[in-house]
Amino acid sequence: MSLEPLLIFELVLLGIGTGFLAGLLGIGGGMVMVPFITLILSHQGVAPGLAVKMAIATSMATIIFTSISSVRAHHQRGAVRWDLVRGLAPGIIVGGMIASLGVFALLKGSWLALVFGVFVAFSATQMFRNKKPKPSRAMPTGAGRLGAGGFIGFLSGLVGAGGGFISVPFMAWCNVPMHNAVATSAALGFPIALTNVIGYIVSGQSAQNLPPASFGYIWLPGLVIIALGSVLTAPMGAKAAHSLPVAKLKKVFASVLYLLAVYMLFKGITS
Predict the structure, then answer these.
(1) Dihedral of CA 206/203/67/15: which sign?
(2) What is the pTM of this model?
(3) CB neighbours of 10 closer than 8 A, spacing ≥ 6?
(4) CA dihedral 11, 222, 238, 140 (to 10 degrees)
(5) Cβ burial, residue 227 (10 Å; 0-12/13-18/19+)
(6) How far is CA 99 from CA 26, 63, 158, 176, 195, in A?
(7) How confident is the model at residue 25 (pLDDT cuts 50, 70, 90)?
């Protein structure tokens, strides 16, 4: 697989676009990256099932860098709920390890694509419904918060996303203000990404027919180019998030997720 100028250009555009969306929506960019990296790798001759797995792993690896850039911008505005980050992170690490070291390697790429599509569509529907939570509802504490983190980390590990597609709706449902939910989700992206990337590298050591310049399931050229672009634009997205009304932010978030869910469901059914 050679890095032709057109391929480099496509990866740069993907990085710029996903970085902005990561800062804007707190999704880590994975919801956008996975479908596009799957398409790019498939066109480069990688088998469909393997392309999905590598797209998920590569997407997650870029989130390590995107989340750092995005969360700095949110933190400067005092929007990150660090108490929630500390409470959810232990569960996220455990859930992510279970997903990336075990379940991810066992499932076929087509099944992972279907899981991706279903949960993204569900998250988008919850956002569009905009159902007001009960005023008395609050974030769980203790074991409940640990379990919530484990669920977020596990599903993120299966679909290669920073967790925003679960954590943003969940925190909003628990009466965390939308801008705080987006900012906190961006901060959660780092432990989610780091934990799962370790798992993808270890579990991918025994994978067959990986293309050149692969590190486990991670496609290194895609990682480097996308990360460079996304780190530059994530702060711009974070700034935009604080200037948009909550209702519009939710609709933007949901619209993006619906489009990507349709593509990945189609990919899972046909591969």
Answers:
(1) positive
(2) 0.78
(3) 40
(4) 140
(5) buried
(6) 21, 17, 6, 27, 10
(7) low
